[in-house]
Amino acid sequence: MIHHRSLLSLVVSVMLTGLSFQVFAQDTPTFSRDVAPILQQKCQTCHNPEGIGPMPLMNYQQVRPFAALIQDRTSKRIMPPWHLDPTIGIQSFKNDASLSDEQIATIAAWVEGGALEGNPADLPALIELISGAEWQLGEQMGPPDLVIKSAPFDVIANGQDQWWEPNVPFEGMNKERFLKAAEFKPSYPLGKKVVHHGHAVLIPEGERRQVALARYGVGKSWEIYPEGTGMRVPTSGSIAWNLHYFPVGAEGPGDVVEVGLWFYPEDQPPELETAGEVMFRVDGLKGMARGQDIVIPPHSYQVLQGTHRLDSPAVIHSYRPHLHMRGKVMTMEAILPDGSKEVLSQVNKYNHNWQISYIYADEEKPILPSGTILQFTSVFDNTANNPINPDPEQWVVFGRRGVDEMSHAWVGITNLNEEQYTQAIAERRARQETLRLD
Ligand code: HEC
Q: pTM to 2 decimals?
């Protein structure tokens, strides 16, 4: 990898150490020139002094002691948290956090070459980190059109998990609007550490539907619907908050969670209405084992499968597997009406600590005909090979606790009619055609 500044550092190192280092200086990556830019781009949003990462990785002094661990976690693709199998299925996402093979190789070569600092003059300019107090979508979307707030909760320092489920009236809208994006924002810094997961669901007045404005878990704080797609939000109703607080040794009276909402302009509603994330069970349902019947013997594996037929064409915009500590893999495949089968996405390094929503790029999101079967496959690993298995001696069954298991997927999906489907396919073909001609 040759950068424009490498010549300078080459000259410097030749001056300092003699000619024999010439090749070495050019080939061995240094922190300042090669590694710092990667950390800036892919790690420092969490690994900063106030972030959720356990240690800051802002400068050489902070990074050097972790060099070997960083090589280990990045080469295994455990860090950054992006647990998707890069060898199969769709690979273009709006929120891709992963390292490229080249970046992983650069980090490895840097560690193997002695984790050198290099020339501090090669360091990239500091980037401005978005503080946890700000909206992560702010830069892209501007300030939210409406902010809703949970009722205050007194966070305790120590003790059991706490559930806080207040109902708060929803107001502030004088017209029905279509949601374009939403972000769930715990307080900062305390809330970011103690709010483990949660959601804000709007129950419209006099309607039976539920409008899930935002669902949150570590690794998932926002949602942007595809262009031309939105969720219909009524003028009034009540927000059912469901917040899971996890004490971490610090008290915080009157803690409030906010959700920021961005809408389509009033006079430009989107063509497509979405229900947002829909739950797909991965457990057989029809006569096979059910989620409630998960039974994994000690030191063994279990595979569960769930199939769901789409009764209309649909677009899929996101995929978020949900398993617990023994869950390792969840694959989402489409069996098309012509019998062909395609893996859409596979998460093969699932880690329960992270709830990552894989949000497809608009150009590659699956557009599926009516009659498609979505087939999901979960694999559970209750052996000692699973590093987050708390106890491979246990029988594991279905349940809400992390040591029990679950098996479902949250899929962002929008149903289409036949005309919309034909149009969506035609638009995609036209786009691909343009790309070929370019
Ligand atoms: C979205 C936030 C986030 C990002 C981005 C992120 N990390 Fe982490 N990292 C964490 C958290 C949280 C933990 C501890 C919990 C865990 O391991 O899942 C962690 C753990 C680690 C550990 C293990 C620390 C230990 O003591 O076991 C290493 C090493 C690491 N991260 C390196 C990196 C590197 C290198 C990058 C970028 C290439 C990165 N992380 C990106 C949040 C993040």
A: 0.88
